[in-house]
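Dear support,

We are seeing what looks like truncated structure output for some complexes. This example has two components. We would appreciate it if you could run it in full and send us the complete token output so we can diff it against ours.
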Amino acid sequence: MAKKIRVLIAKPGLDGHDRGAKVIARALRDAGMEVIYTGLRQTPEDIVEAAIQEDVDAIGLSCLSGAHMTLFPEVVRILRKRRAKDIVVAGGGIIPEEDVPKLRKAGVKAVFGPGTPLTEIVGFFKKAAKGA
Amino acid sequence: MRELVAARRRRPLRRGRADNRVAELVQDLARGDKRAAAKLISLIEDDEPEAAEALERIHPRTGKAHIVGFTGPPGVGKSSLINRLVRAYRRRGKKVGVVAVDPTSPFTGGAVLGDRIRMAETGIDPGVFIRSMATRGHPGGLALATFDAVRVLDALGMDIVFVETVGAGQSEVEIAKRAHTTVVVEMPLSGDAVQVMKAGILEIGDVYVVNKVDLGDADGLVANLNQEIHPRNGWTSPIVRTSALEERGIPDLVLALERHRAHLESTGELREREAARARQEILDNLRRLVEERARRADRVRAEIDRLARDVVERRLDPHAAADALLLGMARRRRVPVPRRRGRAS
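Here is the complete output from our reference environment:
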């Protein structure tokens, strides 16, 4: 059995908009990946715990509430604390231009705004899994 | 066959000091390290070269957990029930593992594993470990590595491990050969008395659950199930009414599981079931080994091509071809062409 790429798609914080997360989950599935979708309103601790138990290659965070500057770096920080920084973190949602470099600096490997082609996102996760 | 066994015989493991990655992972596992458990499950699931050694080291540390399988149609509430049970067992101070299986796409090989959504409230509880698995083409509502993952969670120190099968139709009964206790979940308004009479999934339950009693009309289903349940080895499978949504009937379900476990222990059936599972697993592994060898060796592949031509030309039937191949593999020489036999395929 060949190694499968496993990705956790999660929605941190108080944000009920999961259309985007589901579109991404479906695209990654159609690209042959195993996608663990954990649903709404997860804390960063929940997300990291799930990522560790599921032994994923990467985490995709979706946030449309504006709390990304708190929640995304917090996931990266807890991953480091749990000695799991090999798990790649990417984020998406309504994220202002000027926040992107700050998120990148905080360890979020990629940030995908509205209108990003799905092929670009699929390509990112494929590459991320290979690097891990 | 002798050669097959020899190929599998490995040098004995060096015990004690951790001298490689797998040994280290297994030592961490025994200390309750979840990351090690997760890594070991992946290693086995992906069939990495170290998988055999990992299983060899893990196996002696297993045998304590009560393994409970859940099966039933999609959407009947298996994940939600397991979520409620996890909470109930945690309140009793038990450590709980869950292996939840969802289907792999036959076209892309991808999968969306969504059982965790219903189990989200377990969050960061240190006494809970949940792993989602895709079937990766394995039939029967389970993945090939499902029960190896169960073994890892057993060795991690879980007192009870719930296995959730793919939402099963009428014939996905493999779980019953492998779990200690099999729970069949049904719901009201899902078919008439004849549905309940059909063979297969409705025969395998040690415990039956009628979930979603909040929908009403549970009495009809319970009555129909009652008609079909007969005592087996001194155990009459109870029917438990639950509503995972409204958290009703969960203590009754816990009681039914505990009573079945006690029954298995007191009658010696636990050992019998373990032996039945071991036989099944030996056969599964034999099949896997033979297939792997057949696929890997050029010589064998060439023989398969030659035999396939004979089958297409109607010189040989597929059964006889497989017989010939197996004989040839065991003797490690050119596969003899068997005489035509009258056996239908």
